[in-house]
Write a structure and sequence with these properties.
Number of helices: 4
CATH topology: Jelly Rolls
Strand content: 15-25%
Number of domains: 1
Structural class: alpha+beta
Order of helices and strands: EHEHEEEEHHEEEE
Largest sheet: 7 strands, antiparallel
CATH architecture: Sandwich
Shape: globular
Length: 203
């Protein structure tokens, strides 16, 4: 009975302190060619061992930060922000999003999809599944399926949205087709602010 999605409310006892820390960080504006997803990440990575340990307890698994991703970075996405990418998968064993927007600003959330052409709610994750989809590698998965369809709403059917709520943590298997949902606000204070977490299993 494998877990695929976990949602934890009131995850941190000191969530306001973490939000205050996030508001004091620098969020450099990248060149348009480098903006794959809407918004921008904090320049600094804030890795909190206590958070990683708490996530491990929630999952009941031995995990370690996947530092090849944006683990420990905050992300701000404002209304009108655009990126080259939309629906996607992540390269790790668990993806996590801790919502940091104020309660009065929260809207949308993290949306999960069904890919209409293949009828799937997740990417192929084994060599056999890749072969059945006519793919030889994960690189081909990106080049032939994700990149052409990522920003084509007509190619995807929304399945569910994990609603945004201040201090709500969602953890999900990274091969589920997903995107960040709606961006909003016009400043760091009222925009879509999240704390990103990515983990590999500590095998």
């Amino acid at each position: 009975m494998p877990l695929s999605l976990v949602m934890v409310d009131d995850f941190l006892d000191n969530a306001d302190a973490l939000r205050t820390l996030a508001l004091g960080l620098d969020y450099p504006v990248p060149p348009p060619a480098e903006t794959y997803y809407p918004g921008r990440n904090s320049a600094n990575r804030v890795v909190i061992e206590a958070v990683d340990q708490a996530v491990g307890r929630v999952l009941g698994e031995r995990i370690r930060p996947s530092l090849g991703n944006a683990h420990g970075r905050f992300r701000i996405a404002l209304a009108g922000d655009r990126g080259r990418g939309g629906v996607h998968v992540d390269k790790c064993d668990w993806s996590g999003v801790l919502y940091m927007s104020r309660p009065e600003d929260c809207r949308g959330g993290t949306t999960f999809f069904r890919h209409k052409a293949t009828g799937t709610e997740r990417a192929p994750i084994t060599a056999e599944e890749l072969a059945a989809a006519g793919l030889r590698s994960n690189a081909e998965l990106w080049d032939r399926l994700i990149v052409p369809d990522t920003n084509r709403p007509d190619r995807w059917e929304p399945v569910m949205t994990a609603p945004m709520r201040f201090n709500r943590l969602i953890l999900f298997k990274p091969w589920l087709w997903h995107d960040a949902g709606v961006s909003f606000g016009d400043s760091l204070q009222n925009g879509r602010l999240v704390y990103l977490l990515f983990y590999d299993l500590d095998r």
